[in-house]
Amino acid sequence: MPAKKQEHALPAFMTFSQKTGYYRYQRKVPLDLVDLIGRKKWEHSLGKDLTSAFERHAQLKRDHDLQIQALREPEIAENKRRKDQDRAEAEELIEKFGEDYTSSLSWRDTERVLHEARDLPPDILYSERDYLAMFLVVAFDDASALERKEITSSAALRIQSFFRSTATPSTDIERTMFEAFRAMVSKRILDLDGDAPTNKSYLLSNMRDEYVRIKALAPASERSVRTKTNRLIKALGDRTIDCYSAAELRDFRDTLLEDGLRPSSVTAYLDATKHIMNEAIREDRIPGFDSNPFNKVSVPKDPRSIEERRWKRFDEGEIKIVWDALNTAWGPSSKSRFSDSRRAAFLMVFRVLLYTGLRPAEVFWLREHGSVKEHVIEVKKTKTRTARDLPLSKHISDFYDFAQADGFGDCKTSSIAETMSESFTNIIREIGLTDSKHVLYSTKDTLVDRLQRLPGTSDDIIRGMTGHASGQGHLRNYKTRLNDTPEGIAILRRTVDSIVYW
Q1: Above 70 in pLDDT, residue 340?
Q2: Which residues have C-beta within 8 Å of that of residue 458, sequence separation ≥ 6?
């Protein structure tokens, strides 16, 4: 049976085969769009039924007209080009590593993955970094690298579905290896992050600044936090806080111990950054960062008792020797580098410390935060943020005139208490008081020692002078402090007036 003949004129892009009897849609792709579309010609079979062929042809023509129009818009064309590139990259990655390879990856494959990741195609943006970030997720359940940096290549994201972790550590040895391997991957990612965009607000230094602001830390506390975090930053680098591994932090702890720091000091150094991380987790600052690595870092225990650790009092003989030495070093005829007014201020502050139980910085803060009246010292700013009134003992009654005349003079720097403390330590070491627990803070221990030895001195009197609230239990909700009533202040004054140091 001979093939039918096409008797009607056909529209553009539609042809008919006399040999097969099929209608076809054939259309050349515009030359300027060949690279974007990926072909030179569109070809589709329209079947043998003329009516159906016309309908199918009309639909194809409309679709291709719209596609040509859209691809000639620069933004759309660029998006299409990027998607095609990503697709090609993903296919290349999958072809290179293969589903069989990635389906069995676990943390035990870390060394192999690190080696082979370096051989990824060099024209893929951040490909090695992104590949390792994916591995970190599936092998270590750690998404920090993904959240910390912006992954610009969606090709790397497309291969994530091929990763499947097959093992988790079950013994202490395996857990140690697990952390070590994770640190290796994290370190390599950090090396690659030099060119990747960073969310700088996640850096430890910036998170620390935010922590200081939110907590409204006192100047001394702020300096302490900065000093301690700076030491960690110097050792491990200023990274985003989700990038410090437990293994690295344990190494940092051991380094501090090896440097001779006491266990209590090491704990303080660790706690500074730990608290910042806890705050970030509590407020969900970094997506995916919900586990503090410090939870896997054991703090060292100080074998000494509290009695062994605390500062040491000056006994009756020592306090007299100390006072004589201070008068020589800070007195009017001293050849000290300090100004006359500063030396006089240091002598006054030392006496005030012995009769108030205040900290050195708290006495200097009275200049702007508090007041000295004829019979009462109003302490508004303290390290513990607990304001209190203290009696102005007869032994330091001249402190009133000193304060009214602004006797603090040039003692205006924020570190003046530290300057005085350092000078004090040097002075008493030179006269033979070499015990490291004898420092300026020993003035409070000396006051408490004298209070305890006075007949009839209660714990409420000691707490009233030192400002410590511990030891009261639930009674704290009901008892009025001696500092808060005229009668209580009178009791405190009679007590400290009975103390004589020299």
Answers
A1: yes
A2: none
Give the DSSP letter string of 2-43.
Answer: PPPP--SPPPTTEEE-TTT--EEEEEEPPGGGHHHHT-SEEE
Beta strands in 266-396 (DSSP E): 370-372, 376-379, 388-391
The rounded distance, in Å, linking the Cα atoms of 152 and 193 is 13
How far, in Å, CA of 447 to CA of 450, rounded? 5
Residue partners of 294: CB distance under 8 A and separation at least 6: 246, 249, 270, 273, 274, 277
Q: Which of 104-108, 117-121, 202-206 has the highest mean pLDDT?
A: 202-206
Q: How many other C-beta atoms lie within 10 A of the C-beta of residue 55?
A: 12
CA angle 33, 36, 40 (to 5 degrees): 60
Please name the amino acid found at residue 424.
F
Task: Name which of 378, 332, 215, 358 is nearest 282 in CA terms.
Answer: 215
CA atoms within 13 A on the CB side of 27: 19
d(CA 352, CA 403): 12
Token pair listed for 62: 């409309």
Dig out the tokens for 207 from the structure: 């998170």
Residue 89's pLDDT is: 56
Q: Say yes or no to pLDDT of 271 above 90.
A: yes
pTM above 0.70, yes or no: no
* Burial status of residue 317 (CB atoms within 10 A of its CB: 0-12, 13-18, 19 or more): exposed
Return the HEC string of 144-198: HHHHHECCCCHHHHHCHHHCCCCCCCCCHHHHHHHHHHHHHHHHHHHHHHHHCCE
- For 64-100, what is each residue's pLDDT tens digit? 888 888 777 776 666 666 656 655 655 555 555 444 4
Question: Which pLDDT tens digit goes with each residue over 374-416?
Answer: 999 999 988 777 889 999 999 999 999 999 999 988 887 668 8
Q: Which residue has the tokens 């009197």?
A: 461
